[in-house]
Amino acid sequence: MSEDDEEKEDGRQEVLAQAHAKTRKSLIARLDNWEDQRTWDEFYQTYWRLIYSVAVKAGLRQDEAFDCVQETILSIAKQSKKKLYDPEQGSFKTWLMNMTRWRINDQFRKRKKDTAMIYGEWESDRKTAMIDRIEDPGGDVLSRLWNTEWKKNVADAALARVIAQVSPKQYQIFDCYVIKQWDASKVQEQLHVSMAQVYLAKHRVGAVLKRELAKLESEDDAS
């Protein structure tokens, strides 16, 4: 990656981080009267990127995707009081996908309405053709997107929890040796650590990661 590409990527990540912070702050403010605000904040931190990523890949713009994130979680928070999710009717993973699907469709409809007012219905139909695929009864397009992003999100969410529980140095060693798959000798040389520290970090951080992955999976099953 060239320096220009790196600068563009850094800029994109900064914009994304700012939008994420703004969305989270707005969401929590709208949940002000809720007793368990902390739980919903944790829920947001665990699933926002999954919802956002699927929304973008489904065809939404960045601002629309963040609206989708906020509206999806607000909708879930409101419905949870009525206990509308029934584990016997299907998995939490599928339920969350459907909640996200409806909010994605809302954004497409809003765009279609706004575009139609400016360009006319024929242009709106051309620009929002993706909604027909998202609303396909079989759900193939969104389901494939969801399954791919779900696996990635679970891994990312588990790693985020791990980072909060281990020392920065141990995580850095684990990241280089296990995730980036550097040779042990390169890890030693670049990070100035011993072979014993490399294997200790692999064992300790790996154990925490395994525990957090299992916890996330059990939370999803029990939700």
What is the structure about, briefly put?
This protein has 223 residues and is mainly alpha-helical. Helices cover 81% and strands 0% of the residues.
What does this structure look like?
The chain is an all-alpha fold. The chain has ten helices and no strands. The chain has helices at residues 3-30, 37-57, 62-80, 92-119, 121-127, 130-134, 140-163, 168-179, 184-191, 195-222. The longest helix has 28 residues, at 3-30.
What is the rounded distance between the termini?
41 Å
Rg for CA atoms:
21 Å
How many domains make up the coordinates?
2
Query: Outline, from the CA principal axes?
Result: elongated
Main beta sheet: strand number and arrangement? Answer: none
Counting DSSP E segments of at least 2 residues, the number of strands comes to: 0
Helix share of residues? Answer: over 70%
Average the pLDDT over all residues and give the rounded result. Answer: 78
Task: Give the helices and strands, then pairings.
Layout: H1 3-30, H2 37-57, H3 62-80, H4 92-119, H5 121-127, H6 130-134, H7 140-163, H8 168-179, H9 184-191, H10 195-222
Helix pairs in contact: 1-3, 2-3, 2-7, 3-4, 4-5, 7-10, 8-10
Keywords, separated by commas or semicolons:
223 residues, 2 domains, 81% helix, Arc Repressor Mutant, subunit A, mainly alpha, single chain, elongated
